[in-house]
Amino acid sequence: MPPAKPIRRIATEEAFCTAEVADGLAQVARSPGNSLDLVLMQMIYEAQGKGRMAHMRDRLIDLEGERLAEMDKHGVAMHILSLTAPGVQMFDADTATELATLANDRLAEVIARHPTRFAGLAAVAPQSPKRAAREMERAITKLKLNGFVINSHTNDEYLDDPKYFPLLEAAEALDACIYIHPRAPSAGFDGPLRHYAMDGAMWGFGLEVSTHVLRLILAGVFDRFPRLRICIGHMGEALHFWQWRIDYMSRLRQNAGQAPKLQLEKPSAYMKRNLAITTSGVEDSLALDYSLKALGEDNVMWAIDYPYQPTAPAVQWMDTAPVSEETRAKLYYKNAERIFRLRPEA
Hints:
Layout: E1 10-16, H1 19-29, H2 37-45, H3 56-61, H4 66-74, E2 78-83, H5 93-113, E3 118-123, H6 129-141, E4 148-150, H7 165-174, E5 178-180, H8 204-218, H9 221-224, E6 230-232, H10 243-255, H11 267-274, E7 275-278, H12 285-295, E8 300-301, H13 311-320, H14 325-339
Parallel strand pairs: 1-2, 2-3, 3-4, 4-5, 5-6, 6-7, 7-8
Helix pairs in contact: 1-2, 5-6, 6-7
């Protein structure tokens, strides 16, 4: 018998940066401020050659050297690239809009050079919602990108604020998924997270994004935009692990008039209908098993979180995860092809 065809491994949350955005973030990192985002930005953009984040800036910018070699070494067919957090969301509106447009152009150029190895999510500058919506349309219709990335809050505001509805309307009309990626928690949410390194990936990032998505659900955003698709990483930021209690308490609050009535009644119904998750940075088979059962195996995708997470253990874990081969194929590539509108492998 001929050898089996290698499985197509598509990694769905893989960070990159452009030199222009990196230079802008370095300037922000040198500015006075109290945002917890500055902690990570200073480690990446202000501490080159020192500490555990040494050379991270170079690895984010280098798309065609070390990255492709690492993908080849471990049999990763494709990275879906997204501008690393906090993206353009700490700049003023004009700078953010300009840098998002430039980053999207650069992303489209590298995809054109390597169409079988890279796909991409367009950067969005929510600071100017109407201009952002126009750029979203350009990114999909002209640049042929595969969705959008928004790094959670913008100016400590969330997408349930009606001022941001033009972005959600555009995404729904374009049938393109918005990936809500973490950044440090917003002001007023960050106090207890300023100690013991709790501000970032250990805890704060997950709280930030899960809170954001729950706000969208409870505000009725998915009733207004029923075909809107949101993706979140890190095994769903633990949101769906709370779904029974969220459903129970939400029903009480809705009946008491303390929260808007939801057409589907249960928040978990929106998690299953409007939410997709990736495994980025969480290589835990127990969490994977629960996620598949809670959200459905069509709503879970594999990711590495490169270059912040290493490739080899992510591949080894998914290769050996205790799931059927049919489910493994969905996790590795079939769900990504459908959700991010990727061309199937020939």
